[in-house]
């Protein structure tokens, strides 16, 4: 789980520290003992394990920690934590220290000398291997005191911070697992491993479009399993990776170096040892033809739980029910309210302490949620807390994306409402309307309990561990009342949720257009991109179509995902001026939005209907590696979308795909290129991404008739004025004719 790459020195010697508080530390000059054959040492930042940029410790016994585990094909033989920390200069060194606990047992303690206070400090603590379990808890506790007399247990001087760059190191030996499909997805994906999934896929030959579709099903499945970790796939043609695990696609006649191909008598799946690595495994996906190969891939992605033994032949695969728009398993349901208990385990909705960590409910909201002229998304909230006598300022703050929505007072005793309704004082209920602009495709609701500490007087203050808080799992969020209607192109929706391709979770309305003469790197980019789609939806891309530029006309009814690495994509030349960028093999061309067009029009266009005409043309040639993401309405059919992912070379295409991968390694979203992808044209250079054009000129989705009319006239007020004038003129003419006819009848009588 905790492997991060190159091996690091293992199990350094320990020395004694301050006799008052024994610290287990690494001796700087001591040589590290040699690792046993086959052993490796991995490290992972604590920020990645905890999801926090730092571990704050507050109060006389502030504690914070994280969970970790090891892969099932590894045995831990050594463990230690490298702490980077700082602490208050007011702490008394004879009475204060940091205590490191592993699964509730003390693993070591770290002295806090006065001379090192308030400066970054490093210390290594060895962890006892016998105390390790399948799932482990590592905590750091501050035992802090600032005076020899009576003290305030929550005094502001009682603080320490463990930096997120601190690392946990594990030395592991490989464990040989049996060739049993019942283990799937282990060892190819292990949920205990929080690193990015890197998995080779051996295609068996230079693939045609049908084989790429089968490989895409598998890549999207593993991408869905990887989730927040992200997944990267390295394509191989006819060679196995030298170490580790791999997926292999085979049909009769395929030859893979070093691999003895079993008899293929139908769609089948098998697991065997990697002949190049006795500790690695191969997952063989086989079929006698392209149809059977895709059937085997789909069976693996949709029903791996039913497989067992070293090999299984697929005798039947029922066709999955057709997917509906916006029904991806990862997304909030749009047909009914969704309970928090469906989104988060109940234990994660409960916290304890006066300053507990926020309760967090992660959300994946369907892209294009249309909240114009709406009150927002209703959240029916039920929360519980421990009333604190004498604490009048206790609150619970509800936030979305770290922005405050509403605060709730946590009353110390029963009020009029409680007496009238019988609702206990320890429970609160409310309906909160969350503005839709606070609900992008990836966000979270946070509930932060802040209890006032009631001070009784000098030498009478103490902290009792009896404060409990919870968000009821029956609390709901309901987006069923809002339509889906998105202004396009919008590459931020593509980066966040794979939209518009993920509108159908199985990608049944998506066609991927491969470059001409694609190479291994292009295949890797395609597979990784399909993994990104699976990560967004939580469902394998069983309906994706792969095609070439010459056959793209047959896919006019689908959204097009166009890949290019250099000048090997004819569509870039054929579509010409429809593209906001182009590449002819020697020169890149960009259409840039002007400054003047960024000014809002007096006509009152909605901010979501941004349209800046491209009035600057820029062309240049360069030998550097760069990539672009471009969105546009499909030139083949209105209402359909096309996204071009292109690079000046295969490496450029790979960098564009890499920018779309999410990773918990990033401690600040400001450092994540994904958060700067948007508009209709984004250029990626290295780790930087720049939006050069933001022109939205069509919509995806639909609106109810009356809301659609309101939206149309809101964006075209002059049309509304003209319609009103025309209506008034028609009414005047009809009224004139009616009065004239009445006058003629009266004169005639």
TrEMBL record:
Top-level taxonomic group: Bacteria
Family named by the database record: Belongs to the AcsB/BcsB family.
Native source organism of the sequence: Alcaligenes xylosoxydans xylosoxydans (Achromobacter xylosoxidans)
Biological processes annotated in GO: cellulose biosynthetic process; UDP-alpha-D-glucose metabolic process
Parts of the chain that traverse the membrane: 718-739
Keywords for the protein's UniProt record, in alphabetical order: c-di-GMP, Cell inner membrane, Cell membrane, Cellulose biosynthesis, Membrane, Transmembrane, Transmembrane helix
Keyword Transmembrane helix: yes
Main location: membrane
Segment forming the signal sequence: none
Pathway membership: Glycan metabolism; bacterial cellulose biosynthesis
Bilayer topology term: Single-pass membrane protein
Family annotation (NCBIfam families): PRK11114.1-1, PRK11114.2-4
GO CC terms, sorted: plasma membrane
Cell compartment(s), UniProt: Cell inner membrane
Name of protein: Cyclic di-GMP-binding protein
Function: Binds the cellulose synthase activator, bis-(3'-5') cyclic diguanylic acid (c-di-GMP).
The keyword Membrane is assigned to this record: yes
Subunit composition and interactions: Tightly associated with the cellulose synthase catalytic subunit.
InterPro entries given in the database record: Cell_synth_B (IPR003920), Cell_synthase_bac (IPR018513)
